[in-house]
Amino acid sequence: MPRFGKNPDPDDAGSGAGADMEAEGAKPLTRSEAGWEPEAADTRLAHTAGADPSGVFTSDLSVSEYVLLGEAGFEPLGFVVGSSIYHVGFQIGRWSRNQELHVLSQAMYNARELAMSRMRAEADHLRADGIVGVQLKMQMYAWGQEVLEFVATGTAVKAIDGTAVHRAPDGRAFTSDLSAQDFFRLLAAGAVPVAFVLGTCVYHVAHLSAMQALRQVGRNQEMLQYTQGVYDAREFALSRMQAEAAAARASGIVGVDVTVSNHVWGEHATEFLATGTAIRRLADEHRLPASSPKPTFTLGLDA
Predict the structure, then answer these.
(1) How many whole angstroms separate alpha carbon 158 and alpha carbon 173?
(2) 20 falls in which pLDDT band (50, 70, 90)?
(3) pLDDT over threshold 50, residue 40
């Protein structure tokens, strides 16, 4: 399993709240260089609609989403996947200090970035304008207890008009975790996805000293160092997600979600993961016409 060690402070017994609440500032996380792109998918991609006009498209779209995608002026090209199996290194944490575990934060970020970049490379292979319905998952295998696999999946799509105005500012396919319904509404509002952005922070929340634990027995009071630690970790994740959107030249982020996972590091080491879809405005001439069908919600009455 990924290893997280605790380094007891020699002054733990006498440390006060001020020392316990000390938190390190957020450091920017660096992107991994992909370096290697898997060739295993080349045969599959070569027979999809994106690479061969006579090929078939593949997607994880529902029937309703497929129809709505067409109404938005897009066609699916192929189901695209990116994967990275990553070994997470050793991290020392201070028992009585709130602090980010930078080795673990960087590992979780690098692994996800590698998976995302490989998924996007498959979309480039299909000459796609974007990827919709992006899902980012993490899983473990029995044969590799010290490694984690990160998998990014989505459906590569292309604008039917062939203008390529919907691509990201860097000229490559946009990425988005929006549903087909939300994607349609976004286009109707005159905006387009730029990138699926994320920020992560693995944080060690300080343990209470024996004296602190005794002081709160039977009392109603805020666990201030816990509040501060969780607050800092969440802010680090959100600020890094925001920085990714700015680097992608987006004007905003929609669908922001912050998840908290303990994984396998122990109860006081927690990952905060912030995700969302960065968007930008399009020129008015690229807005969906007002006559376009509007998505509706139908509630079945079957028992």
Answers:
(1) 9
(2) very low
(3) yes
Residue 170, Cβ density class (10 Å: 0-12 exposed, 13-18 middle, ≥19 buried): exposed
Please name which of 233, 247, 207 lies closest in space to residue 108, comparing C-alpha atoms: 233
Nearest residue to 10 (alpha-carbon basis) of 96, 93, 90: 96
DSSP classification of residue 250: -
Strands 191-204 and 269-281: antiparallel
Three-class SS of 66-96: HHHHHHCCEEEEEEEEEEEEEECCCEEEECC
Residue 137 pLDDT grade (very low, low, confident, very high; cuts 50, 70, 90): very high
Q: Which residue segments constitute the domains of the chain, with CATH numbers given?
A: 43-211+221-283 (3.30.110.70)
Among 234, 268, 265, residue whose Cα is nearest residue 98: 268
Q: What is the dihedral of CA 207, 211, 217, 221, to 10 degrees?
A: -70
Span 262-291, pLDDT tens digits: 776 666 788 899 999 999 998 765 566 665
CB 147 within 8 A of CB 1: no
In this prediction the pTM is 0.79
If you count them, how many residues does the chain have? 303
Place of tokens 């998976």: 115
Sign, CA dihedral 208-212-214-218, equals negative
pLDDT tens by residue, 218-267: 677 667 777 888 889 999 999 999 999 999 999 999 999 999 887 766 66
**What are the strands of the beta sheet with 174-175, ordered from one edge?**
74-87, 144-159, 130-141, 174-175
